[in-house]
Write a structure and sequence with these properties.
alpha+beta; Sufe protein. Chain: A
Length: 152
Amino acid sequence: MSQHYIQKEDRMKKYSRLLGVFIAFLCVALLFTSCAEELTLQDGQYFKISEKSRNGGYLEVTLVIKDGEIQGCDMLMYTKDGNLKDETYGTGSTPEVYQAAQAALTAAKEYPNLLVELGSIDEVDAISGATETYDVFKEVVEEIIKDASKKE
């Protein structure tokens, strides 16, 4: 074979591979866009109680949806005994445990505000010291969003 023919064949293989990669990328992109359905949140007030967490506590979450957006969020946190977590949460233990419990409680109280401010649970990050509450909060919010959604 001539050198010219081999070079031409190498260029053709290169272009074929590039074309194959481009077509594969295009197919994947089309698949994702065709499968995506826009969800619209129905206006209303939604309430849900979480499952018990690893430590036995649970959350009560209320979301207010107006004009298809999250306009309000309240979250109450309860101990495994069903007591509301407040300024007495963590008492009866060492001062260090009490301070840690109160710090976690203070941090966790930010989640509803962050959700309203950012508009999506996917935008809210866990706060150090309150990650277990974050996991439960996120799960409950996702359930409420699913309940408040309708497919268009």
